[in-house]
Amino acid sequence: MNIDEIQQKATETGVEMHSLMTELYPICRSITGNGVRETLRVIKKSVPMEIHEVPTGTKVFDWTVPKEWNINDAYIVCPNGKKIAEFKKSNIHVLNYSIPMRKKMKFSELMEHLFTLPQHPDWIPYLTSYYKDNWGFCISHREYEKLVKEDNGANADYEVVIDSELKDGSLTYGELYIRGENEDEILISTYLCHPSLCNDNLSGVVLAVELAKQIIALGGKHKFSYRIIFIPETIGAITWLSLNEGRIKNIKHGLVATCCGDSGKMTYKKSRKGDATIDKAVEKILVDSGEPHEIVDFFPSGSDERQFCSPAFDMPVGSLMRTMYGKFPEYHTSADNLDFVKPEALANTFACYLRTLNILENNVTYINQNPKCEPQLGRRGLYRMIGGQKDGGNKDAIDELAVFWVLNQSDGSNSLLDIACKSGIKFEQIRLAADALRDAGLLKEKN
Ligand code: ZN
Prior knowledge:
single chain; Aminopeptidase; alpha/beta; binds zinc ion; 4-stranded antiparallel β-sheet; elongated; Glucose Oxidase, domain 1; 3 domains; 447 residues; 8-stranded mixed β-sheet
């Protein structure tokens, strides 16, 4: 696929991704439970995938798969009979993983379990309590202030209802393997444990689905095999790594897809290695895009790259996103909604992913077959293909400088990506030059 085709494809998919997001948005997800299953069932309509269930109590490295959480309803009935914090209106009203609760209590007790965001008084925060038994409600700060005012020290009862269930069950995740020409794999990992929140991280989920569709459409005509996993964050990554330790050696490159749809600039968080091929490839496409972007070194907090890049694994996995989690005010609040994520932004991120994969698929290391001085290009018909003033309009024309760079650097120690990075020439131009030189017998792929 060339760069123009990638752009074309990406523009078409922006709306498609947003519409899948709209379908998944209402589902109440968590790290376990029916919300994850329902989400995977919807995704499975567009891409085939294996769904794994890992029983509660399974030891996964230092962790244990927790009890499964499901919820039907939750709300508070105020003394005046008004129902507030209704789960059915917004599933983030309930502290995710809240234990079941049905109790009448005074405001003084209730207020210990109410969470708000004073700096954004109209937004509902999103909070969880996975590994500590707790219950609670997240409400807007404005609603909270109203409650304080209405209660006014009265000794009236509030009825708290959380119709949830925590019991032995399983942790669910989805995995899709797309076989390529060889066993080396590219891993795309995304997490689906957040309820009605869009940028973090339905955007990553829908992007991974579209990538899968795109790769499947190639009908196996790609060098790498692809493994795309839809897992609950942290515990899901730990579980997957624990069950797939033998597979890790095959994974040559990987990306964690998160926060792919806000209108901010692209951000790349490097792998722990910092100089892995994936790091160079993403950096190259961001530089070549000419658009504002940010590249940050690995740090051991964040998303599932934390597990993939833990010292025993140290996988070449980075994270390609737009505005980083935690860096946009809407993060983990009700304002991270369907309006916050834009189809155009999703499309642009998707194009960045495709361009990165395009580099990885075409990143060959060649050996110059005529390394003693420059070969005579004219004799081989290569000068006719080289674009210059004569051929300025031809986008497939070969860049003369790219030809010299490829010839000079192809001593077996530099890949085409290395040459593109060193020369500052776009990867696509380097690849076109290399293709022509290879066809003219001047380059041979290194084994
Ligand atoms: Zn999050």
